[in-house]
Structure formats: structure tokens, C-alpha cells
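Milestone M4 deliverable, item 7.
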Amino acid sequence: MTNFAKKIENFLKENSEEKLAEFHKKLVITKYKIYGIRTDVLRKFAKYLAKENCPLEEIKPNSHEEILIRGMVLSNLKLKDTEIISEFSKFIDYIDNWATCDMIVSSLKRLKTENGYKFFIEQLSSPSSFKKRVGIIGLMDYFLISDKQNEIISNLTKITDENYYVQMAIAWLLCTLISKDYENGKNALLKFNNKFIRNKAISKCHDSFRLTKEQKEELKQLKI
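Output delivered:
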């Protein structure tokens, strides 16, 4: 066992919380073991590993937390966008739940580039539902309010995947767009005839502090 592998093993043992693990198991459906470690603790350890130049290959995908640590270490490395995409392309197959997807994608801020945009768009046509979600979340986080907005919406309307986590991601993106750019967001919403996506987006908008009471009432009239 390498020095890094031993440190990771000790970290998992010392920071796992049984009650938290049971709680996470109710929220995160994954085939991997869940130790129950707090996110801030994971981030701190990942920063340490990145600073110590821990090779990504040393962080084995044996548990939910180890996969998160590997993604977090990647986000802390000072790499070019093409290098991040190369490493993330190896990592993406380990993503089998919404939490890993959303947490890691939102930390890859160096992918707010043209290469990053192309990568996220490519994921939308993947047969894997979670790769599609990676694409949707990446586009929402980094490119939604930009000149690529119309192209993004056009690509999303072509998705026929009925997976819950894919459709929820699209609804979340639409709600985010409506909350930040109401008129364009409302027009985008009307392009989706999927009952679950449209109604869920409207439902999420109801909880937004960015929207007025009048706007929320107008959106209710657009339910299917």
C-alpha cells in the first residue's frame, strides 16, 4: 500500500459517521459504499491531497466518498481545460448518482471555456443518463446566461431520456433560467411539452425569491 493509499484509508476510518452514512443512503442511490463523511471535511482533505500532488490514480473508486475526493482533487489541480476534460472523461464513468454529479461538476470552474462547452454538449447525446445530467448541470452552471443560451435550449428539447435525474436536471435548468432571465426563460419553458419537466420547472420557480408573485401566477397558467 502506498503512502497516499494509507492516508486515504485512515481518513475514511477516522471521519466516517454511521448516522450520517444512514442519512446519506436515503438521499443518494449508489452502488458504492457510503462512509458518511461531511462535505467540508472531504473538501479540506482533497485540497491537502492536491497540494501534496497525490496522483489521481492513487484515489481508488471504492466508495462514494473516495469518488468525491478524486473529483475534488481534480478540481483543485491547476490544469488546462483540455487536461481537465481528459481526466474528467476517465472519472465520469464512476458517476452513478445526482450528488456526485452536481458536486463535482459545479467545482470544475476551469471548464467555463469553449472546450468545456463542447464537452458538456457532447454529454447530452450519451446513452448514459448520468452523463446527460453531467452535461445539463455543466451547461446550467457555466453557460446558461450567455450567447449560447438558445443553442443549449435547442439541444435540451431533443433529449427523450425519461430518467428522473435527467428530467429533474432539465427542470432545474429551466427554473434557473426563468429566475435570472424571466422572458427568455418563459419562452424556453414553452418549448418543452414534457409534462413532468414543464410542471416541475414551474413548481421549482414557485420557491424562487427572484420571481414576483405576478410572475409565479403567470407561470402557473403554463402548466400542462
